[in-house]
Write a structure and sequence with these properties.
Layout lengths: L2 E6 L14 H18 L3 E4 L11 H11 L4 E8 L5 H15 L3 E6 L9 H4 L10 H16 L33 E4 L3 H9 L3 E4 L2 E3 L6 H19 L7 E9 L3 H7 L8 E4 L5 E4 L2 E4 L1 H9 L2 H5 L2 E5 L6 H15 L7
Parallel strand pairs: 1-2, 1-12, 2-3, 3-4, 4-5, 5-6, 6-8, 8-11, 8-12
Antiparallel strand pairs: 7-10, 9-10
Length: 340
C-alpha cells in the first residue's frame, strides 16, 4: 500500500483560461478539491507555501477549514519556508489546525527556495544573526518549533495572572499531542536529509534536488531516501519514519487529457541553477496512457522507496478536472502497481 495525495501550489490568475481567477477562488476550490479527493479515496491534501506570490501563502486557515469539512484525509504543507516563521506563533496555529482536524495534520517545512522578492523574510521581521546564513536561520527556527511542539513548559508564569494557571512553567497552547511526530523536512540535498533524520523529522522530497553526482533524478532521490533512513536508524528513533516524493503524473484517458498533457509524454529530467551557487536537477513529468504509465512509474526508484506519493495538480484547471486527474491515478494506475 502507498499513500497517494495531491500537492497544489494554489496559483490564481485573472486570465481567460484560468478557473481560479482570485485568491478567494483558489482557497475555496482547494477546500472543494480536498473534499472530493477524500470521497475518491485519496489519502492526502497538501499545499505549497510561497510568499509575495499569487499562490498559497498562509496555510493554517485553509488547513483548518479542510479539517472541518473532512474526516479522514491527511492535510498538510509541502513546504512552509521557515525563514519567514515565528516558531511559537506557528506552533499555536499548527496546534489549532491539528486539533480541528482530529490529528490529521502533516506539516512539511523547509529552508525554502528562491522567492519572489529579494530577502523576503526581512519584510517579515527576520534576519540571520552574526555569521549565520539564511539557511542557518531557517534551521534554528525549526529547532525551536520542534522543541515547543514537545509540549514541555518553558515560560515563567505571572504571579498575578488574569486567569488561573496550572502549576509549573507554561507551554504554548493549544498543544496537540503527537504533532511533533508529524513534522516533515523538505530536503534539497542528501546532507539536509541526514540532518532531518537526526532531529526525528519525516522526509519530504519534491520534484527537484541538488544535482549530486549526475545520475537520473529518481536515482539520486532514491539515494537521498536511503541516506535518510540510514541516519534515522543511527539516531536510534523508535518509530518508523515516513517519506514522501512528489511527481507530476497524468494518465491520458480522454481527449481533454491528451490536449492538456499529451505533449509531455517525451518529458525528461532537466538541469538548472536555482540560485547563483546551487545546481539542481528537476524531475520529468509523466504523461501517458495508463498501461504505459504503469510501466514508467514502476521504474522510478524513488517512488518505490517512498511510502507517500504526492501528485502535483494544475489547480487553475478547476476542481472537476483535478478530481478526474486523481481518479485516473487511483483507478487505472495505483491498483496495477500494487498501491491499492
Amino acid at each position: 500500500m502507498k499513500r497517494i495525495g495531491f500537492l497544489s501550489f494554489g496559483h490564481w490568475s485573472d486570465t481567460p483560461h484560468s478557473q481560479a481567477r482570485t485568491a478567494a477562488d483558489s482557497l475555496l476550490q482547494a477546500i472543494d478539491l480536498a473534499v472530493a479527493a477524500e470521497e475518491l479515496g485519496a489519502d492526502g491534501a497538501y499545499f505549497r507555501v510561497h510568499h509575495f506570490a499569487r499562490q498559497m501563502a498562509s496555510p493554517f486557515p485553509l488547513l483548518a477549514a479542510i479539517g472541518a469539512r473532512t474526516s479522514r484525509i491527511e492535510i498538510g504543507t509541502g513546504v512552509i519556508d521557515m525563514r519567514y516563521e515565528n516558531p511559537l506563533y506557528m506552533a499555536e496555529d499548527a496546534g489549532s489546525a491539528d486539533l480541528i482536524s482530529g490529528g490529521r495534520l502533516q506539516l512539511g517545512i523547509s529552508r525554502g527556495s528562491p522567492e519572489q522578492v529579494i530577502d523576503g523574510w526581512r519584510y517579515f521581521g527576520y534576519a540571520p544573526s552574526g555569521d549565520d546564513t539564511e539557511a542557518d536561520m531557517a534551521r534554528k527556527h525549526t529547532e525551536v518549533l520542534l522543541s515547543v511542539l514537545e509540549g514541555k513548559g518553558f515560560a515563567r508564569p505571572n504571579p498575578r495572572p488574569m486567569f488561573a494557571n496550572p502549576p509549573g512553567l507554561l507551554r504554548v497552547e493549544p498543544h496537540s499531542e503527537g504533532l511533533r511526530e508529524r513534522i516533515w523536512w523538505g530536503a534539497g540535498s542528501n546532507a539536509t536529509a541526514v540532518w532531518a533524520a537526526g532531529l526525528g523529522m519525516n522526509l519530504m522530497s519534491s520534484t527537484l534536488k541538488n544535482d549530486e553526482g549526475g545520475a537520473p533524478f529518481h536515482v539520486q532521490q532514491a539515494a537521498q531516501i536511503r541516506a535518510f533512513r540510514e541516519a534515522w536508524a543511527e539516531a536510534g528513533w523508535e518509530r518508523e519514519p515516513r517519506v514522501s516524493v512528489s511527481r507530476s503524473v497524468f494518465a491520458l484517458t480522454t481527449d481533454q487529457d491528451r490536449a492538456y498533457f499529451g505533449n509531455d509524454g517525451d518529458s525528461a529530467d532537466q538541469i538548472g541553477n536555482i540560485d547563483a551557487t546551487t545546481r539542481a536537477i528537476f524531475g520529468r513529468t509523466y504523461a501517458a496512457e495508463p498501461d504505459l504509465l504503469v510501466k514508467q512509474l514502476a521504474e522510478d526508484e524513488a517512488i518505490a522507496e517512498a511510502d507517500t506519493l504526492l501528485l502535483t495538480v494544475p489547480n487553475q484547471l478547476g476542481v472537476d478536472y483535478n478530481s478526474h486527474v486523481l481518479e485516473n491515478i487511483l483507478t487505472h494506475v495505483a491498483p496495477a502497481l500494487g498501491w491499492r
